[in-house]
Amino acid sequence: QVATVTEYGAFIKIPGCRKQGLVHKTHMSSCRVDKPSELVDVGDKVWVKLIGKEMKDDKLKLSLSMKVVNQGTGKDLDPNNVSLDQDERKKRTFRDYTSQKITLEAVLNTVCKKCGCKGHFAKECFMQPGGTKYSLIPEEEEEEVAAAGCERDKKSNVADDSSKKRKK
Asked: What are the S1 motif domain coordinates in residue numbering (predicted)?
């Protein structure tokens, strides 16, 4: 029987026992419950399952759940506590304490045996026979070297053009 309703759950009187247990609002229903007072009222009789016991300051605290019990028949819907274990796993968060950046240098520095381009393996090659070859965009340092090489080529082409004009 519901003894009191609070903003965080409901305290339930257990028959044949002087103790009361708490049904937290997260264990009242499989749906989200914002206000427990919308679900239960003081004096309502509900079916509950004991899901936890805790000794704190020489007092026994009982945790109860309504969502794993059929409220019409009182049948235990989670006899092996599978859904309770899943709920606990959902609450845990993964924390990465390494804070190291992941680099893919091994793949970036590879050359495809099929097309000869950098950045992928032959089994991942997307080149069609006779099609366009694609490669990774070079790094800034490589671009500067390539740009300097292109400028030299342009100067030599200009010199070649002027020599060709003289020959005519």
From this structure: 1-67
Contacts of 30-36 with CB under 8 Å at 24 or more apart are: 30/67, 35/7, 36/5, 36/6, 36/7, 36/8, 36/9, 36/10
Residues 6 or more apart whose Cβ sits within 8 Å of residue 131: none
Tens-digit pLDDT profile for residues 120-135: 777 777 666 666 666 6
Which structural domains are found in the chain, ordered by start? 2-91 (2.40.50.140)
The span from the CA of 70 to the CA of 74, in Å, is: 5
**Cα separation, 146 vs 79, whole angstroms:** 69
